[in-house]
Amino acid sequence: MEPTPQKSLERVISQRAVQMSASLQCKAWVLGFFCGICIAYLFLIAFTPYKAGEFGVGFTNSLAADSTNSSSLSLEVDKNAGCDFSSKDIGNSTKFEGSNQLNDVKKAALLYSAWTAVLDDSKDSYGEFFDRGPNRTSLPRPPYMEDCKMNVEINKILDMRGENGSLPRWSLWKGKLGLELFRVAFPSEEQKLQAAFQNASPPWVLGSDEDNFPLTRLVQRHLWIHQHPQNCNKSNLRFLVADWERLPGFGIGAQLAGMAGLLAIAINENRILVTGYYNRADHGGCQGSSHAHWSCYFFPETAQECRDRANDLMKTKEAWDDHIITVKDNYTSKEIWSGRIPRVWGEPWNYLQPTTDVDGNLLRHHRKMDCRWWRAQALRYLMRFQSEYTCRLLNVARHSAFGLQAAEMVLRTIPDWPKESVDTSLSDIENFVWSNHKPWIPRPILSIHVRMGDKACEMKVVEFENYMHLAERIRKKFPNLNSIWLSTEMQEVIDKTRLYPQWKFYYTNVRRQIGNMSMAAYEASLDRETSTNYPLVNFIMATDADFFIGALGSTWCFLIDGMRNTGGKVMAGYLSVNRDRFW
User: Where is the chain membrane-spanning (predicted)?
Assistant: First the structure.
């Protein structure tokens, strides 16, 4: 007699549970995970495919295929779960014995749980796990994960000067291809190689020149050279040392806008900007020298030698008397927030392509075009390379949001998994060429940031329905668009996503505001790590989305737009529900 679906699922749960350790914490994790699968499975049986509800976890989209319309995700990964189901278990195909009779839904859940174990393994990097042994592992690689350790190692080379103070190896060959094979291909042409590096563009600017704000590549190159002089100990160098703004009520967006103003002052006064204490990195997730510093999330704004030199000068009276050192208190609020934009590159903001839509019309000119252009350049430089910590946060976010969907997709290419062994060794084209591709996410995808709450005192706020009206406008032109990455602090916005079953929503799983309260009070109600990590993940996901809808009156949306316009997204356009209050 063939077992019922419920009996089959119970057998799978028993098999997987036996393979876990006796850790109480791990048991709780496993029990919660498989209970979620059971609940989802029973709901899918009980209801029609088009009415499957939201289960509040990251894998609802995949379990219900196209029938469910929302997926939340958590940024918390338990690094010390005590589970034995990790590299040893996954690499041994006998651990999956009895699993080859699973249906597609259960296989996807099993593969997702195996990927989760890899992500949780704090002892190894993602890339090292898949590069072990002659036969590697029976676990296929998740297409949405990046090898964070490898990325940081590569980017460190791209962010430091070479021998004799030469510029980094920004060759015409991209990523690992340029770093590892370029010199091999031209072993006897060292001088020509150096000349090629001196004229190359920074690798963090994507797309053609027309796909970015005017002069983006040139400005990014000059900013890096300015902040990374050949010799930080030269007597004619001057420094501006500034902590990040920490006044109550200042959100991350305001802090970034303030630092962009300080960078402008540094450029105008020919000083090297050195950032200090960053309160949002003052938490347990930021370890070592990056604790309470910007470098916890992104690469430092200047070379370590310059930072050390500035710190030494701050201890000498002569440096203060001769204005070799200045700090934030040397400048007025007006100079920081609305001071003179650097004009060493002319006035390229006069040539911005009109790609912003407000009320169905392109915004061709406004009073703050110079500020818009400069903040975009400053932010692109400050966020040019992600730290390993930020990279891992994004791995967790993509895993939680898209993991089961990706598992179903991957299993279509290996239908006999886990019985069929998977060789995850990399050929040269995979290792050197395809490794430069961005991690997979479902595309096309639209990012929407809904700002409400206390923002009503600064700008005209509109209801979620207005944002979705603009989303429908985009889909009329691009009918294959059905995924939305939604960021908002308001729970009522999340609740309203149920009114749009034709869309798939993805969003972070954090406690949101119910009713009106200030952003400062809301952030204070969360722990500092959460209140920093989830907005930054939303920010980065928004900059990488195919389309974006926001509110120009929101500084956060203003900065997202700037990052997109220096990241090859100019021609994707920007649909806004209002105008900036200063324009």
Answer: 28-47
At residue 287, the 3 state secondary structure works out as: coil
Length of the chain (residues): 583
User: Can you tell me the distance from the alpha carbon of 467 to that of 447, in angstroms, rounded to the nearest whole number?
Assistant: 11
Check if the beta carbon of residue 38 is closer than 8 Å to that of residue 59: no
Q: Which of 6-10, 72-76, 206-210 has the lowest mean pLDDT?
A: 6-10
Q: How far apart are CA 403 and CA 119, in angstroms?
A: 11
CA of residue 334 relative to chain centroid, distance: 31
Element housing 272 (H / E): strand 272-275
Q: Which residues fall within 8 angstroms of residue 353, CB to CB, at 6 or more apart?
A: 210, 570, 571
In 19-134, where does DSSP find H-type helix? 24-46, 60-63, 87-91, 104-120, 126-130
Q: Name the residue among 569, 582, 160, 566 with its Cα closest to residue 378.
A: 566
408 close to 442: Cβ distance less than 8 angstroms: no
214 HSE (CA, 13 A, CB side): 14
Q: How far apart are CA 448 and CA 483, in angstroms?
A: 11
For residue 201, the Cα-to-chain-centroid distance in whole angstroms is 23
Residue 31 tokens, joined: 């029990």
pLDDT tens, residue by residue, 306-337: 999 999 999 999 999 999 999 999 999 999 99
What global pTM score does this model have? Answer: 0.82
* Pairing status of strand 356-358 against strand 361-362: antiparallel
Structure tokens belonging to residue 4? 């019922």
Residue 141's SS3 state is: coil
Distance CA 251, CA 270 (A): 28
Question: With contact defined as beta carbons under 8 Å apart, do 146 and 177 qualify?
Answer: no
